[in-house]
Amino acid sequence: AQTVTQSQPEMSVQEAETVTLSCTYDTSESNYYLFWYKQPPSRQMILVIRQEAYKQQNATENRFSVNFQKAAKSFSLKISDSQLGDTAMYFCAFMKHDGGGADGLTFGKGTHLIIQP
Amino acid sequence: NAGVMQNPRHLVRRRGQEARLRCSPMKGHSHVYWYRQLPEEGLKFMVYLQKENIIDESGMPKERFSAEFPKEGPSILRIQQVVRGDSAAYFCASSRPPLENQETQYFGPGTRLLVL
C-alpha cells in the first residue's frame, strides 16, 4: 500500500512571495503518477499539476512547479509570485500505474495555505 | 465543455434513510471514481468503475454502500440505512481510459451529505 505524507498542516506567506509545500510518499511501485490538487473554500478539487515518475524533468504550469526527487520519494510544490486566490488546501496525491489500468488516488492530509495581503 | 457533474450538491437524510448520489463524467471519459472526505481530512478512495463494471472497490465499506455505473445514465453511489458517521463530502472524479495515458482524474463539485 502507498502512503503520502504532508508534514505542514498550515502555512502562511505574504502576497507575491514564493512558497514551497512539501510532500513525501512511500511505495514499492516503479511506475506511478504524482499530483497536486487545490481545494479552495468552495471545496471544489482542482488539478494544479501532474508528474509522471518516469520523467526526470520537473513539471511546470505557469507559477506552479514541482521538485520531484524520485530516489528520495519527495514531490514538493513551489508557488511563485503567490496571489490571494492561491489561498486553499493543497493535497498531494499518488496513483500507481501498472500498465494494465489506473487506480484510485492516495491523498495526503493536506496543507492549508494562506496568502496574506 | 461541461466538467464532471454531481447532484445533489447538498443532501440531508435522517438516520436509517437511504442516500443516492449521482455523478455524470466529463464527455469522453469512461472511468469513474468515488472518494469520501471527512471533515478536516484528505480524500479517501472508495471505488473505481467503468461502464457496467466495478474495477476496484477496495475502499468501499463492506455493508450498506454500493456503487454502479450503468450503460446509460450517471454513476450512482448508494448508501443504505445511513448513520451519522456517513456525514461527509462525497466526490466523484472521471478520467479517460488508462491505456490512452490520460489517467488524470478530474473532480466534480462534490455532494455534502448530512445525516441528522
Structural account:
The complex is a heterodimer of chains A (117) and B (116). Chain A has 117 residues and is mostly beta strands. Helix content of chain A is 0%, strand content 51%. Chain A has strands spanning 3-5, 10-14, 19-21, 24-26, 32-39, 46-52, 60-61, 64-69, 74-79, 88-96, 106-107, 111-116. In chain A, strands 2, 5, 6, 10, 11 and 12 form a 6-stranded mixed β-sheet that branches. In chain A, a hairpin with a 2-residue loop joins strand 7 and strand 8 (64-69). Chain B is 0% helix and 48% strand. Chain B has no helices and 11 strands. In chain B, strand 7 (65-68) and strand 8 (75-79) form a beta hairpin. Chain B is globular and about 40 Å long. Chain B starts with a strand and ends with a strand. The relative contact order of chain B is 0.32. Chains A and B meet through strand 5, strand 6 and strand 11 of A and strand 4, strand 5, strand 9 and strand 10 of B.
Set out the fold topology.
The complex is a heterodimer of chains A (117) and B (116).
Chain A (H helix, E strand, L loop, with lengths): L2 E3 L4 E5 L4 E3 L2 E3 L5 E8 L6 E7 L7 E2 L2 E6 L4 E6 L8 E9 L9 E2 L3 E6 L1
Chain B lengths: L4 E3 L2 E4 L5 E6 L6 E7 L5 E8 L2 E4 L8 E4 L6 E5 L8 E8 L10 E2 L3 E5 L1
Parallel strand pairs in B: 2-11
Antiparallel strand pairs in B: 1-3, 3-8, 4-5, 4-9, 5-6, 7-8, 9-10, 9-11
Number of beta strands of chain B:
11
| Secondary-structure element order of chain B, N to C | EEEEEEEEEEE
- The percent range for helix content of chain B is under 10%
User: Which outline of chain B best applies?
Assistant: globular
Note the main attributes of this structure:
A: 117 residues, mainly beta, six-stranded mixed β-sheet, four-stranded antiparallel β-sheet, B: 48% strand, globular
Q: Could you write a compact summary of the structure shown?
A:
Chain A has strands spanning 3-5, 10-14, 19-21, 24-26, 32-39, 46-52, 60-61, 64-69, 74-79, 88-96, 106-107, 111-116. By secondary structure, chain A is mainly beta.
